[in-house]
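Q: Could you fold this chain for me?
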Amino acid sequence: MSDQLDVSKNFDGPEQSGDGADDPYRGRQPTSHERHAGKPWAASYHDGPAPWQIGRPQPAVVRLAAAGAFAEPVLDAGCGSGENALYIASRGVSVLGVDVAETAIELAREQADQQGVKAEFAVADALQLERLGRRFATVLDCGLFHTFDEQERRAYVAGLLAVSEDDATVYVLCFSDQGADQGAHPVSQDELRTAFNSASGWTIVSIEPDHIDTRDDKYGGPAWFATIKRA
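A: Sure. Below is the predicted structure, expressed as structure tokens.
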């Protein structure tokens, strides 16, 4: 029951990710993570489940949903194969999940149909969110922020501001630089506060220790859970 959002006028061509033989990035610039990995995000889903595909929502998302924290409409930025977005949508909340990986969005739509959950999914570049042409009361970022370098974070945070309603809340779950067995791209509290500062239009309400679950413990690790309000 997924809705295939028509974003052709906003995301046609360069902003879409694919795995074509000539240009796997379809004209867009690869992100810092993709440059490091040597492959586009879409390729992460080719050989079985990606490490972050755990077949269920992250515990932090379940906790937020139980507390009624997802005011609609909700944007799930970097939704991957859709487990978090589908869980939120299953509770009757309007959700749009976006990801640059077409392979991930295909999986998300398949899961929505299999589960009978009404949700929207679209291929979109999180570094150009303003091209969505929509605004959201809540944004969920589960494992996306920590994949960006400093320059990408500035573009991402500006895009979040462009698509957020006046009193919007952003929830960020990202790998932490604290504790043992840290995940990929660990982030410090200072990095979060630098990215989401008053000059960029945001106020950090809280940053709490948390955990990101993965299919294999070696990929999971300690996390920060940040609650951020539009200033």
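A (continued): The chain has one domain: 2-230.
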